[in-house]
Amino acid sequence: MGSEFPMSSHLEEALRFLLKDQKHENAACHHCTHHHDPEWVLEADTWSQLEALRQRLCQRPAIPKIPADRLADIEAAIQHHNNHKVHTSAISINPCTTITRDEGTSDEKSVLNLSIWKGDITTLTDITAIVNAANTQLEGCFQPEHRCIDNVIHSAAGPRLRDACHDIVFSQGYREPVGSAKVTPGFLLPAPWVLHTVGPQLSPRQKPQAHHRAQLASCYKSCLDAAESLPPLPNGKKVVVFCCISTGIFAFPADLAANIAVETVVAWFRDRSTSSITDIIFDTFLESDEILYRGLLEALPDRVPSLAPEEAILIQPSPLRLAPGSVVSIPSEPILKAREWLAGASHLIITAGAGLSAAAGLDYTSTTLFETYFPAFKAKGLRRLYDIIGYNGWDNPCQKWGFFFLHLDHVRKWPVSPLYGLLYELVNRFSSNSAVPSSSKYHIRTTNADGLFVKNGFAPENLSTPQGQYAFLQCYNKCRVDAIFASEPFIKAALPFIDPVSQCLTNEELLPMCRYCGGELTLCVRGGNYFNSAPFHAQEKVWKGFLERVYDLDRETEDAMETGSDDFNGTVVLELGVGLNTPGVLRWPNEDLIESSNGVRLIRVGIDASGCVPWEMEEEDRAIGILGDIGIVLKMLVPK
């Protein structure tokens, strides 16, 4: 099919084939499918279709081969999805440590740079190969619910990667041994090559034995040996990116695995007479792994006697490790178009979900954050702030309010963020000199109750918070419309009486009660029918007035388009970190606004679903999806 064929149609054709293919497989296996029609996904939104594509490709075996025309549809959809991701050049990743070895003469030296990078390994560019932690079958993971690196790499590379791995195992006649490595092309990946290695698999809480350690070390040696035969990049470098092998669901302790990884790489380089590999990047997914690797690399120069007793190599901190300007991401076509829209817009709507707070560090999915600030509540089985939503397993009110007062104080004291600073620079382009909200050319609408917009200097009169705010407590019984109270006095009174170990409130008299009816207070956030929206009615009135002005502007834009003007000067909706938890509050209304207008454009930024727009809207040049870290994207959208 030609390039003019819409990408949404490529995606639909790919799904039709895979659904039909799956029906044949189910029939062959005598599975009962009369009660379930999977073709509902053909009418679903783009993100659901992409997830269905990923899941079905994950479960589909390499044999029978996918027909060429359907493979073209599948790869077109995957490549288009990949193109919306924020890519990072390895050239911009400054090394932490440099290893230098003499090559026989004073003028000949071999240098190996060791670096750390936290992010999606499939989005790195200017690299030679990435390492995949494979299984002995080598064909990838067949369980879509696993968020393992094997699934991540195969999903981004496309089905030809599984085909290539199948051919290797079929040709050699046996499963891939633990500790070995094989090379395949990267196919749809930015990396031209993939090094597949099989690490040791442990059971949870199983202690690694000597042979497990040796197997893991062998993985790194085998990958480096295989990489030696690969061609260098045009700039002469050879860059290998390692994932964390055997950790995660394979249960190898992360600290021991990181130590083995670093020591093995150093020893391999030390023991070779020559090497064409110039750079090793240790890619981590978890913040805890990043901390482990950074600590190991920074400590390497002090371990020279044990790692190189004969001074065969020189290990030293890289002179670039503290250089400003850090990692550079590559502006993609969606980024460039988003910049153009923002530059031409006359009005701006920012809609923000939990992903924006997470990008500023207040991440409700972070186990590290929860363990740092709320350790006593881990005994309740709680691991993340998200686990608190709807939770009713408190032992008593003092335990419950011990947590909530600490949480509210934690949010209240959250520092100002450079990320919000970038947004502030952006809205300044749309600010008026008047303090009257009706004259403003921007509005911010957020489901976040944390108050970070106001904390970072944004004008409250240009802000609406339909889901409530932590700044208020309300009567749970809604005994009267004005039973609303500022939360800060309650927090300040309670903090001295919260036990530092149990994190429980020790004075029952400080439990928050309604001064009118004596009933319990609760957070003034939308969590059920108890929610009192009265404090936010004025905000909603301002928002509705702003929307009316947007529609008036849209009619003017439509008239300009009819007169032949091609310049965009309408309204841009910049949607940040809005996922699928409460799509009816921001996400769907944003799409409705785009569909019901001609001069409004949507820029959606975030991870996974939070960065995906309907491809039909994109094809009509009315929406753009950008998949990536919000902080990184904003730096490219709001250049200094």
Automatic annotation (TrEMBL):
Keywords from the UniProt entry = Glycosidase, Hydrolase, Metal-binding, Zinc
Q: Which Pfam families did the record assign?
A: Macro
Reply yes or no: does the keyword ATP-binding apply.
no
What PROSITE patterns does the annotation carry?
Answer: MACRO
Q: What InterPro entries does the entry give?
A: DHS-like_NAD/FAD-binding_dom (IPR029035), Macro_dom (IPR002589), Macro_dom-like (IPR043472)
The protein's required cofactor(s) are namely:
Zn(2+)
Q: Does the keyword Transmembrane apply?
A: no
- What is the name listed in the Swiss-Prot or TrEMBL entry for this protein? Macro domain-containing protein
